């Protein structure tokens, strides 16, 4: 069964593909999305938070929610048949190197945002809340590398998170204990970034992703 986030991503992807949605298009209101997706308003809000963190949408108070250029780029993102094993293989190749670069060149503003995502993730007490801040944390680390080409590659990888097979597997394997362990691993990554320790950041990221991979698909 698709999550609300997956259903919303599908709705946006269909709109961009058929031309009814373009960069700058205003999205339906939360009330309209509740009716269209048959989902609680709280779940719609959480899904919108994830998409905003991914850069797919931007929200302006009093004006509404709008589609970004990133959403159009993600139409040609991860293939629909991408497996969890393939996702983890690419993450293990890409994200430790991103952490290395971010440790070297991230600004104080970048580190503040990364720290904010870490704190919010640690305080999340639901699967959806933790997943939202988990995604935002990893993306904020990638943004700290200040490399547009690398961000495009990361965002293509990130589209795989919208695939039903990934979401259902994450939900089945998620427990409060695992979320706490992931938060501790996230903390080790962020500590290394703050210490400007490229090797330490890469090692902490690799160990975290290996743990995620072992949990989801076993050792390969």
The residue-averaged pLDDT reads: 88
| Element string (H = helix, E = strand) | HHHEEHHHHHHHH
Spatial strand arrangement across the major sheet: 1-2
**Uncertain spans, ≥5 residues at pLDDT below 50?**
none
The gross shape turns out to be: globular
What would you call the structural class?
mainly alpha
The counted number of beta strands is 2
Helix content range: over 70%
Largest sheet: 2 strands, antiparallel
Helix tally? Answer: 11
User: In angstroms, what separates the terminal alpha carbons?
Assistant: 27 Å
Measured by DSSP, the beta-strand proportion falls in under 5%
Cα-atom Rg, whole angstroms? 17 Å
What does this entry look like structurally?
The model has no long low-confidence stretch (mean pLDDT 88). Strands 1-2 form a two-stranded antiparallel ribbon. It is mainly alpha-helical and 220 residues long. It is built from eleven helices and two strands, in the order αααββαααααααα. Helix 5 packs across helix 7. The chain is globular and about 45 Å long. Strand 1 and strand 2 form a beta hairpin.
Briefly say what this structure is.
Helices cover 71% and strands 4% of the residues. With 220 residues, the chain is mainly alpha-helical. A two-stranded antiparallel ribbon has the order 1-2.
